[in-house]
């Protein structure tokens, strides 16, 4: 099988690289993607035949109607960056202080913009419709996906495809897996309230610090002693704050952290254990322990038939061994919300290349990618969308 749009992709690649470098230079944090949205708006308006809507303050949705009737496929890119300082030393490193595209969303945005341009140019030969979701705020819960879904951007959509660059997958490969590919991503904050006073008279105080230590220690047992050894779960205490001086016992200590699971049962069990430990250990020591729990993104669950379609496509276009089965990620991904509404899948585009120094993981200050992956990324998105159309049609026939 010849990849469709091969020539168009080859032609647009330098432009996609330029777009990506532009986004990389001017990264914007979650919900603040004003200039990025403006840039996308200008570029997409130029195409002339793509309808734009703006259901959120930042980000946008572009719609293209093919000349012939057919299924509607959504393609999604996230457009936000992270609040961190870039240390890559790249020529086109971030010019926005304290913000960095360290998760590759600049590439996702540029590749999807390339995909819109190519499909727009080929409108007369297309069947069905295409919805391009340029979503803000993937990195910051509640995230942009849930708002996009609530704004009904998936109305009439039959299936969805998303992709993320992967720093653990070699350039030239695509990673994917059926079922849960990302975790339920929740976080907690425990406030241990005692009664402060002078460090020399602990008998007149209720010192929350040793109580907080007991809570942190007890929490280490939650996963190994409550979750089946066959399941995966992580609980990390990542911050503990209390006190201001060496001679003052503080009133309170705050403990914060993250919980990652794949199933609803484990998600709820860990929540209950945290609440119980915080309240009961505090009570035993005359403190008050309260938990603020933030239920984050649900697990991204790929539809097996769509995973199979992408796998077959990748192998057909690029040969056997191109599509590798990923380990489920403990990371979060708000693409989950789209997949709760429509079938589809989320794939990983390999951007690792040791020869070019692209070895740092996402969210690292030195994270870089191999831009040679873009050709495959756009090819898989475009051909994947057409593949999904076929799959939807087959399924409709069968039904
Ligand atoms: Ni990301």
UniProtKB/TrEMBL annotation:
Record-linked SUPFAM superfamilies: Bacterial exopeptidase dimerisation domain (SSF55031), Zn-dependent exopeptidases (SSF53187)
Single GO MF descriptor: hydrolase activity
Domain Peptidase M20 dimerisation: 188-281
Family annotation (InterPro entries): Amidohydrolase (IPR017439), Bact_exopeptidase_dim_dom (IPR036264), Peptidase_M20 (IPR002933), Peptidase_M20_dimer (IPR011650)
Protein EC: 3.-.-.-
Gene3D superfamilies named in the record: 3.30.70.360, Zn peptidases
Broad class of enzyme this protein falls into: hydrolase
Keywords: Hydrolase
Keyword Hydrolase: yes
Name under which the protein is recorded: Putative hydrolase YxeP
Top-level taxonomy: unclassified sequences, metagenomes, ecological metagenomes
Gene (UniProt): yxeP_2
């Amino acid at each position: 099988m010849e990849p469709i749009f091969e020539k168009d992709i080859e032609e647009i690649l330098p432009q996609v690289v330029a777009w990506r470098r532009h986004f990389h230079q001017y990264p914007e944090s979650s919900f603040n993607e004003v200039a990025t949205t403006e840039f996308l708006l200008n570029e997409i308006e130029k195409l002339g035949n793509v309808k734009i809507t703006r259901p959120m303050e930042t980000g946008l949705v572009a719609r293209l109607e093919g000349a012939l009737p057919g299924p509607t496929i959504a393609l999604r890119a996230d457009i936000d960056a992270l609040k961190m300082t870039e240390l890559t030393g790249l020529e086109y490193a971030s010019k926005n202080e304290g913000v960095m595209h360290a998760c590759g969303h600049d590439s996702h945005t540029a590749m999807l913009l390339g995909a819109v341009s190519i499909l727009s140019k080929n409108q007369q030969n297309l069947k069905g419709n295409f919805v391009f979701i340029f979503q803000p705020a993937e990195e910051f819960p509640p995230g942009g996906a849930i708002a996009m879904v609530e704004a009904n951007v998936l109305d009439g959509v039959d299936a969805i495809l998303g992709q993320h660059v992967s720093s653990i997958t070699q350039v030239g490969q695509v990673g994917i897996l059926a079922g849960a590919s990302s975790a339920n991503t929740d976080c907690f904050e425990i406030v241990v309230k005692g009664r402060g006073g002078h460090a020399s008279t602990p008998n007149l105080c209720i010192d929350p610090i040793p109580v907080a230590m007991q809570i942190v220690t007890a929490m280490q047992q939650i996963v190994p002693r409550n979750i089946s050894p066959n399941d995966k779960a992580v609980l990390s205490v990542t911050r503990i704050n209390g006190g201001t001086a060496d001679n003052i016992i503080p009133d309170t200590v705050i403990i914060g952290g993250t919980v990652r699971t794949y199933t609803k049962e484990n998600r709820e069990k860990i929540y209950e254990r945290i609440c119980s430990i915080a309240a009961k250990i505090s009570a035993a020591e005359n403190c008050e322990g309260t938990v603020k729990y933030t239920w984050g993104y649900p697990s991204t669950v790929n539809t097996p038939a769509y995973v199979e379609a992408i796998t077959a496509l990748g192998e057909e276009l690029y040969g056997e061994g191109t599509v590798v089965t990923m380990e489920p990620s403990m990371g979060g991904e708000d693409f989950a919300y789209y997949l709760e509404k429509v079938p589809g899948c989320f794939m990983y585009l390999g951007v690792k290349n040791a020869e070019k120094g692209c070895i740092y993981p996402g969210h690292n200050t030195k994270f870089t990618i191999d831009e040679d992956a873009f050709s495959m990324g756009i090819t898989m998105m475009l051909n994947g969308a057409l593949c999904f159309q076929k799959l939807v049609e087959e399924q409709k026939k069968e039904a």
